[in-house]
Amino acid sequence: MKKLVNDPSNVVNEMLDGFVSAHSEDVERLEGTDVVVRNTAPVDGKVGVVTGGGSGHEPMHAGFVGEGMLDGAAAGNIFTSPPATDMREMIATVDGGEGVLAIIKNYEGDRMNFKTAASMTDVEFEQVIVDDDVAIADSSDRTGRRGVAGTVFVHKVAGAAAARGESLAEVARVAEKTIDNLATMGLR
């Protein structure tokens, strides 16, 4: 497959700038970061819903930032987790006073960096781990299962619950229930 890349060392920066330019009526980029947030963030009295992960599977992250979905998305380098400092800025930016839910795909770097980011803020924080790929590991051991296509459903369900004004605990609960009922298969 051919890819149009001007400079491999600048691909994430150009991707985010292009995305924000194309959707400037809805999103903005946090200065000095690889984070895209809703223009309306934070929304007072609403749970913030965020995600993050390595670039290279677009529109997996920034493409789902919008009303009724995500409030923010942190982009890492190609197939690399975003830094905890970017995640911290995102969490602080989208917190409307009701806390923030992070939807994390089951990758060790994403899990570790979100945990570190949450410890660097005073924001009430919950996380859910998406592990819907049934092609990896058996159904009784979800440790090695990746978060893949089913993550989009978790974004939508959690985003809708947050938009309705549900509490952080309830947004996390419906996200977890969605995860528990997902099974997808990642193919190459």
Q: What's the β-strand tally? A: 6
- Give start-end ranges of low-pLDDT stretches: none
Total helical elements? 5
Terminal CA distance reads 13 Å
The largest sheet is: 6 strands, mixed
**CATH-level-2 architecture:** 3-Layer(aba) Sandwich
Mean model confidence by pLDDT: 90
The whole-angstrom Rg is: 16 Å
The CATH C-level class name: Alpha Beta
Q: What structural class do the secondary elements suggest?
A: alpha/beta
Describe the 3D structure.
With 188 residues, this protein is α/β, with parallel strands linked by helices. It has a single domain, classed as Rossmann fold, CATH 3.40.50. It has 5 helices and 6 strands, in the order H-E-E-E-E-H-E-H-E-H-H. Strand 5 (100-105), helix 3 and strand 6 (125-130) form a beta-alpha-beta unit. Helix 2 (84-94) crosses helix 3 and helix 4 packs antiparallel against helix 5.
Task: Describe, in short, the structure shown.
The chain has 188 residues and is of the alpha/beta class.
Which key features would you list for this structure?
188 residues, alpha/beta, Rossmann fold, six-stranded mixed beta sheet, 18% strand
Topology of this structure?
Blueprint: H1 11-22, E1 27-29, E2 35-38, E3 48-55, E4 72-78, H2 84-94, E5 100-105, H3 108-119, E6 125-130, H4 151-163, H5 168-180
Helix pairs in contact: 2-3, 4-5
